Amino acid sequence: MKFGTKAIHAGQEPDPSTGAVMTPIYQTSTYWQKAPGDNQGYEYSRGTNPTRKALEDCLAALENAKFGLAFSSGMGATDAVMKLLQPGDEVITGNDLYGGSYRIFTKIFANYGIKFHFLDLSDPEIVSQYTNEKTKLVWVETPTNPTMQIVDIEAIGKITKAKNLLFVVDNTFASPYLQNPIDLGADVVMHSVTKYIGGHSDVVMGALMLNDEDLYKRLWFIYNSCGATPGPMDSFLALRGIKTLHLRMKAHCENGRAIAEFLKTHPKVDKIYWPGFTDHPNHEVAKKQMRDFGGMISITLKDADLQETFRIASNFKVFTLAESLGGVESLINHPATMTHGSIPKEVREKVGVVDSLLRLSVGVEDVEDLLEDLKNALA
Ligand SMILES: *Cc1c(COP(=O)(O)O)cnc(C)c1O
User: Fold this and answer.
1) End of a domain among 184, 216, 242?
2) pTM of the model as a whole
3) Phi and psi at residue 269, in whole multiples of 5°?
4) Is residue 160 domain-shared with residue 25, that is, in the same domain?
5) Which sequence positions are flagged as catalytic?
6) Which residues, including other chains, have CB under 8 Å from residue 127's CB and lie 6 or more apart?
7) C-alpha 68 to ligand 1 mean position (Å)
8) Test site for ligand 1: of 69, 75, 105, most ligand atoms within 8 A of the Cβ
9) In this structure, what CATH number is given to the domain that contains residue 110?
């Protein structure tokens, strides 16, 4: 089945009890048992719920995976993956990560004796260089947030396979429409469903998709034991959002391209980060592993201090100044003080997250209105 058909149908059969075409919201915490242990596959909703199950099967299908697990946030999903590790284990990851991922690694899991190496993964060979007998996991985000670096998933997958390391890709920025890391050699795909998959800025949710049954069982054990699982109403909203994922992504990409091209030559723009430009340092890798280049664009402003950057960021009428991304509405964000505020200044500035950086999540409004808004705000 092709992507759009899976987005609409995967995991969803008419409800067996009523024939309802849309998966019902099974707003129940518990399930009737005929005799102790004799149930219809559902016991308690922390572990399993029919609405969530439909969503998880759909999510798995979108990433060409056998198994899906939904979590109450992207961070809940990340937390579950890290709980596969033991004190003393080491993790290799990128040097430009979502702020919350950096925070959970350095402020939570470092306290449990796990060591993290934050590296520039644009040369995949660096993974071999830093691997020792304690290395267990490689965590990659691509495109990175917010500087849109591209990491070669297939090249890293070859190394992790040879060295028997678990390879996880945070695929939030690309969405499953643009990139499928499991096809390229990843073991687990992580998503913040909050972003493109949900797509309407009305749900906070995370997901893991994977093929290995033993690993799925271990992750399900953590999910059920630790309990960061989403409720049926949110699962329903995510399922509803997914039905238009392919349509939305086409529009995000189209608007993203028009806006990136407009900003590239704008006199107020210093640097622009968007993997669709042929002069982006990893454009060829992006072309190889992504279907298109998406609607996430970051820029730095010319001769702008923090005050001037704040002034411009507050000047928009159609773009909304807010954290998050991937919704139908366009958002503008100031990473240094908003999404990446938990990363120390000297660490973030090294990878380009400077005070004059703004990140755009280009929505699916009419592009003329978005261009007009940018023109006015930057004037
Ligand atoms: C938002 C985000 C997360 C965290 O997801 P939540 O749903 O906010 O917990 C992780 N990775 C990336 C790339 C994100 O953008």
Assistant:
1) 242
2) 0.96
3) -95, 125
4) yes
5) 46, 98, 170, 195
6) 92, 119, 121, 138, 156, 159, 160
7) 17
8) 75
9) 3.40.640.10
Please give the structure tokens belonging to residue 363.
Answer: 């929505």
Q: Which helix (H) or strand (E) holds 190?
A: strand 188-192
Ligand 1 lining (C-beta closer than 6 Å): 73-75, 98, 100-101, 141, 145, 170, 172-173, 192, 194-195, 204, 206
Domain that holds residue 62: 3-242
- Name the 3-class secondary structure at 91: strand
Question: Using an 8 Å Cβ cutoff, are 255 and 371 in contact?
Answer: no
Which residue bears the tokens 């019902």? 24
CA of 38 to the centre of ligand 1 (A): 39
Partner residues linked to 139 by β-bridges: 93, 168
Compute the distance from residue 362 Cα to the ligand 1 centre, in Å: 17
Tell me the CA–centroid distance for residue 98 and ligand 1, in Å: 7
Number of domains in the chain: 2
Per-residue pLDDT of the chain (379 residues; tens, 9 = 90+): 999 999 999 999 999 889 999 999 999 999 999 999 999 999 999 999 999 999 999 999 999 999 999 999 999 999 999 999 999 999 999 998 998 999 999 999 999 999 999 999 999 999 999 999 999 999 999 999 899 999 999 999 999 999 999 999 999 999 999 999 999 999 999 999 999 999 999 999 999 999 999 999 999 999 999 999 999 999 999 999 999 999 999 999 999 999 999 999 999 999 999 999 999 999 999 999 999 999 999 999 999 999 999 999 999 999 999 999 999 999 999 999 998 888 888 888 988 999 999 999 999 999 999 999 999 999 9
- The CATH number linked to 305 is 3.90.1150.10
